[in-house]
Amino acid sequence: MPMESTASESEREPLSVAELDRILRNAVEGATVGTWVQGEISSFKRATSGHAYFTLKDEREEAVIEAVAYRDSAMRARTLLVEGARVLVRGRATVWAPRGRLQLVVESVRPAGRGALLEALEKLKQRLAAEGLFDPARKKRVPCSARFIGVVTSASGAVIHDIIRVAARRGRVRILLAPAQVQGDLAPDSLVAALDRLEAVRGLDVIVIGRGGGSFEDLLAFQDERVVRRVAACRVPIVSAVGHEIDVTLTDLAADARASTPSQAAEMVVADEQAQQQQLDQYRGRLARVMRARIAEDRGALDRLVLGLGDGRRLVADRQQRLDELEGRLREAARELLRRHRSGLDRWERRLVARHPRAVLEHARGDLGSLRVGLQAAMRADLERRKALVGDRLGKLGVLSPLAVLGRGYAIVTGADGRALRDAADAREGDRVGVRLSRGRLLAEVVERQEGCGNATLQGDGGS
């Protein structure tokens, strides 16, 4: 039996590689048509043909599969097919015969959230931005005519050669390379150490840090928080030249300036001496033309002034004559001023003599005599007027005086308390009363009282 089996197998013709590829392709395509696959896009590239090539990574296990989206599919999903995106793709697996490579042909793409790495980088970016590491206000001015440049990059890469070539073409400059790993797990520490070494060098004008293009994973060292913080804290201005124009890393955001390529970084910090010399020659020519025009203009103005001045001796003589005239006017004005002052002085002197204390006193004495005579006359007239007024008022007072009534035979009777008695009832028999007459008074005793007729009988004791 074994011999028969061997003989039957040897009778079969061997398959060609192409036939095997076709068998595998048919088997794979038949088993995976319309299959949805979820993964994270990595190593994304877009060809000139419009096709998109990338790798789908499993986020939980170490597994990848190469994928291709042909032009029409890639155009429809151009906003979703980006490095680090987490996507759902529908398609079929196939075997590409020219390479014997298993790949996933993508027909449609849906978003499935951001990749874990991309999401972590976005969170780091937001946190560093909140701390102000990307704030334009803290960025230092990058010199455009540096003479001493430090470079942090791989010693064997094309970056340092591009910088040296461009710098040498533009001008004379010293370049100091601090070699570092730019890819891999050890790259962040290597980049930080290289920056430390360069910052300690005296006289360094600027630092260029960078590397050539690569996949998203190749640039991860320049997304590392340690590198980003070291770049932001560097005292020397830093230009970041990482990847290509479309690649933007956190180091680019933290650096003082960003260049799309290392060559552009060299152009930013190294002045083009030839262009500067040409510009200087242009400025020199313009300055010479302006100076010649200004000299010609000033010479013309000088000639006009000389022509206007004429003979210098005549000018001096005219000025001297004018000076003599002014001197005469000044002397006349001084004499006139002196006369006015002297006249004023005489006037004040006369006024002062008139106001001498002796003169004032004599004048006051004369005024005092006339005032005394007037005062005495006024006093006599006022006294006579007042005497007449008093006599008139005494006459009127005498008419109204009770004494005048007593002179006509009347009397005033007062009680023991001195009050006048108006009613006989106010006195009792035996009371002693006073009687006031026109001349003198009497002290009497009531012997009889007659109430009703208003009469009382008094018995007098005599009195004054």
Describe it for me?
The chain is an alpha/beta fold. Among the domains are: 113 residues, Beta Barrel (OB fold (Dihydrolipoamide Acetyltransferase, E2P)), CATH 2.40.50; 152 residues, Hypothetical protein af1403, domain 2 (Rossmann fold, 3-Layer(aba) Sandwich); 55 residues, no CATH class. The chain has 13 helices and 14 strands. Strands 1-2-3-5-4 form a 5-stranded mixed β-barrel. It has a 5-stranded parallel beta sheet with strand order 7-6-8-9-10. A 4-stranded antiparallel beta sheet has the order 11-12-13-14, with no helix packed on it. Strand 4 and strand 5 form a beta hairpin. Helix 5 packs parallel to helix 9 and helix 6 runs parallel beside helix 7. The longest helix has 44 residues. The protein is elongated, with a radius of gyration of 68 Å. It starts with a helix and ends with a strand. The N terminus is likely disordered.
